[in-house]
Every structure is written in structure tokens, then in C-alpha cells.
Amino acid sequence: MTDEQSDQDRVESRAHLLPEEETVGSDDPEAQAEAILAESDVREADQNAAPDTVLERRTSDQTVAVEPPD
């Protein structure tokens, strides 16, 4: 299977609308699937590519201690 066939298989699989998407419909499910998969590929390749997505990895001793109010 070539990369092009694999990509087409992914698009065809994703072009089946999810229940939430069926509710609002889609003028072009295949184009929508291509866009979703392209964005997903970018996010997978660069974990920091998603807007406003920052995953902090801290231990409990690195957190800020909040004292209760008086």
C-alpha cells in the first residue's frame, strides 16, 4: 500500500460523519476529513503546534503552596 492509498483510506474512514457532525451536516465530508487529518498530523509531529495547548510536567514539590484564608 502506498502512502497515497493509505492517506485516501484515512480520509474515507474519517469522512463518515460523527453523530455530532451529522446533526449539523457537512457540505463536503471528504474535504472536512482531509482538513481534520492534516491538522492532526501537524499536531502529532509537533506537540506544541496546538494553539493554547501547553502540557506542564511538574512534581508535587514544584507546585505553589496555597495557604488558607484567615
Content-based structural category: mainly alpha
Question: What percent of residues adopt helix (DSSP H or I)?
Answer: 40-55%
Mean pLDDT metric: 80
- As for the number of domains, it is 1
β-strand percent reads: under 5%
Radius of gyration: 20 Å
Distance between the termini: 67 Å
> Can you tell me the overall shape?
elongated
Report on the biggest sheet. none
- Number of DSSP strand runs: 0
Order of helices and strands: HHH
The count of helical stretches stands at 3
Question: Low-confidence runs (pLDDT<50, min 5 residues)?
Answer: none
Description:
The protein has 70 residues and is mainly α. The chain has one domain (3-60). It is 50% helix and 0% strand. The chain contains three helices and no strands. The protein has helices spanning 3-14, 19-24, 29-45. α1 (3-14) packs across α3 (29-45). The longest helix is centred in the middle third of the chain and has 17 residues, at 29-45. It is elongated, with a radius of gyration of 20 Å. The mean pLDDT is 80.
